[in-house]
Design goal:
Two copies of one chain form a homodimer.
Chain A: H1 12-23, E1 27-28, H2 29-37, H3 44-57, E2 60-63, E3 70-73, H4 77-92, H5 97-106, H6 111-128
Helix pairs in contact in A: 2-3
The structure holds a DNA duplex.
Amino acid sequence: MSKFKKKNVPTEAELEVLKVLWKTQPATVRQIHEELNKKQSSAYTTTLKMLQIMHEKGLVERDETNRAHIYKAIYSEEQTQSSILSNMITKAFGGSKFDLVVRALGETASTEEISDIRDLLDSLEENKK
Amino acid sequence: MSKFKKKNVPTEAELEVLKVLWKTQPATVRQIHEELNKKQSSAYTTTLKMLQIMHEKGLVERDETNRAHIYKAIYSEEQTQSSILSNMITKAFGGSKFDLVVRALGETASTEEISDIRDLLDSLEENKK
DNA sequence: CCATGACTACTATTCTTTTCGTATATTAGG
DNA sequence: CCTAATATACGAAAAGAATAGTAGTCATGG
């Protein structure tokens, strides 16, 4: 019986790294770094450090067989989005998932979006059968 | 014409303060502090400082007429939730509100929740007419 | 074989957020 | 009045996140 589930919510910079990983799974630091630098430049060691920290935290795993370690995200994008969401529901929506959806759809939902959501609900109920 | 809209996303500690304010609008630092301490204790000046910072940032306004300043949130809980959400949609959901809703409803939506959402969608379309 | 380039580890710096101590002013009770 | 309680302001320490520099190692092409 585990005491407290370690919160797996990545920080902002970590999320950027994860995005790259999700696109091109196992990857070396070098590859990840190049990809990140397309958006905004930083030192190679910054990316490296980031990966090392994420490894300690258990956000990524790596293959150390060769000199250049090869990284993979441990949690999928979907899983991560879910944990970000549930963290947020707790902190900013009084624990109510419904409130979050209301707020998200609330003001600016287009007619099209609305029917998309309807379809989603339909398929959710299907699966429940 | 304003250049860049200042992001109004409160930090975690700021959000805690805001929650108290939304419950018992205008309030003194003392009142806010007592309320916060029910959850977790901290120094009075910590709460004070928090409010001062939030004031500078334009998250709260205050009445300085009397010695004990009286604070009010500038943005409603709904507005704040919206900006937190849109911030998050940008950063973690590739800008897709739909994806966020999918993720939120995805796994654990109960039958009851689903029908609640349907009702919500109905009323959204009503308003659109 | 060895010099050069590329890799990891470690440490330090910077920036932001959060927390708190101290100084100073104001108010109210005895 | 004057002391004790309570405010604000200010500065700075502490904690967390992000960035970067340096040292040492490995591997490989010339």
